[in-house]
Amino acid sequence: MSEISEMMGRAAQLRRENQVAEAISAYGAILARWPKAADAWYNLAVLQRQTSRFSEALSSYQSALAAGISRPEEVHLNRSVIFSDFLRDHASAAAELKEALTLNPGYIPALLNLANLYEDLGKRPEASSLYARILSIEPRAHEALARFANLQPADGVDEALVDRLRTALAEPGSANDKASLGFALGRLLDAKGRYHQAFTAYSAANQASLESAGSNIVPYDRARQSEFVDWLIAGGTPPVSAHVHDVDPQPIFIIGMFRSGSTLTEQLLGALPGVATGGEINFLPQTVNTELMPFFQSLAEMTVERLDGIAARYRAELLRVSSSAAFVTDKRLDNFLYIGLIKCLFPRAKIIHTTRDPLDNCLSIFFLHLDPQMSYALNLKDIGHYYREYRRLMAHWRRKYDADIFDFNYDAFVKEPQRQMGALCEFLGLPWSGEIPKVSARSAAIKTASVWQAREPLYLTSSGRAQHYADELQDLRQELEPTNR
């Protein structure tokens, strides 16, 4: 074995063992001696991206291209993900994907990502055309078919498309494909008013999503979730607070359950002067699950200096979104778990809690193609239990921070938009013209081709949706009874 092969093998072993810093150093040592080692540049870039060193990762990917790496279209795909997901530079992301397709016109991952990017930018005809192109290359590209179906307006569903989805579901395919197809079919059937068939399709889709995760999924444990909420109530708040810094941009946290109206809320705020939309900023959950583990011990031992450091790094994430806005929204919904930490990091932070009818909310989660690792979402009764625990925790946070938490109810907004929008702006101290802002149909979040999550907006018809599924929701209604009392 040559020396470079031995060093590459050692670096790869460090990477497999999740010794990231050591692996980065190992690849750096290789490149110091063999600067044209394209695979080393590529692997280094992957690790740099993993550690949020995005500029360095882009540079390393470029070096891999310059060194003549095989399958350069994959490098351009990876560069596009950094531009779209982390740097919010959609123009550069599109340019990278187009370059990948210049090199390989039939490269389906790039076609999928470009179509998804077009969707997020509101370019639905362009996205639809790309999905059609994918299907012309590979008629059994089930993910593309599912996404194409999700693009169709709910009031103009083509029966032929319903049949096409059913045919695809009957063909051999992966569980992940069957989940995507099943959720798309459920949406079309719901739009046609065929509610029993829709519920059957959604149930099968959730089962396929569970199967797609295999042994990697951690089943939802009701007792463990209740215990975790008990711990958060007892010890989820650090004993000290960070120093207050009145510098822009200030965070506005949007929290709550999925499908509670959070995307609409963020879009409404983003249409106001001085507010930039940050989407789902992963910083806090990532920090909790890495450097603050074990979480409750870390909170109990927290110092002002450490909180100041975390707050400074979070502000850097806000500046990545906008350097000129007075406020940046963070719509990472599960931050409701960490409100105690948030209020110690940013004592003046405002928190918008999006809510809607519990039955409608839980049903919409069941109808949403979420990551199967969120295993509670795959079963209606588990969704009901998770919902009750979330409401119990929110009641605790309200007792502590009531003045800084505002409930923005989707159903109330539908009925009285002027009144609710005015109250929201008053809570935030933001000026409002009296006009309800016009918002786009989708958020700007970008997902890679391998992870597709339906992100349809809520509509006026979303209120009271559960009435169409009264028979199917009897168990969920019972699960939610303690919440509704």
Task: Give me some keywords for this one.
single chain, 485 residues, mainly alpha, Rossmann fold, 5-stranded parallel sheet
What does this molecule look like?
The protein is 59% helix and 5% strand. Mean pLDDT is 92; it is low at 441-458. The chain has a 5-stranded parallel β-sheet with strand order 2-3-1-4-5, with helices on both faces. It has helices spanning 3-16, 20-33, 38-50, 54-66, 72-86, 90-103, 108-120, 124-137, 142-151, 159-170, 175-191, 195-213, 222-235, 262-270, 283-288, 295-300, 304-321, 339-345, 358-366, 380-401, 410-415, 417-428, 474-484; strands at residues 250-256, 275-277, 327-330, 350-355, 405-409. The chain has a domain at 227-461: 3-Layer(aba) Sandwich (Rossmann fold), CATH 3.40.50.300. α2 packs antiparallel against α3 (38-50), α10 packs antiparallel against α11 (175-191) and α19 crosses α20 (380-401). It has 23 helices and 5 strands.
